[in-house]
Write the structure tokens for this entry.
Amino acid sequence: MTTLNCPVVEVTAHDLPLSCPMPNSPQWSSHPRVSIDVSHGQAKCPYCGTHYRLKAGETVKAH
């Protein structure tokens, strides 16, 4: 699958834990739900290539 036109989604700490596709996504049922770890500031979905990025100033607290 090509990732050239994959969206970039900015998320907040409130959105965590994060999974793709997100419930409000137009791709909601396009692939199996997978956890996305943005603890390093950004991550990409292995299925659809959507790029998730923490908004500036957001921090992830340890669980």
Remarks:
- The CA atoms of residues 18 and 32 lie 14 Å apart.
- The mean pLDDT is 85.
- The radius of gyration is 11 Å.
- The first strand starts at residue 8 and ends at 11.
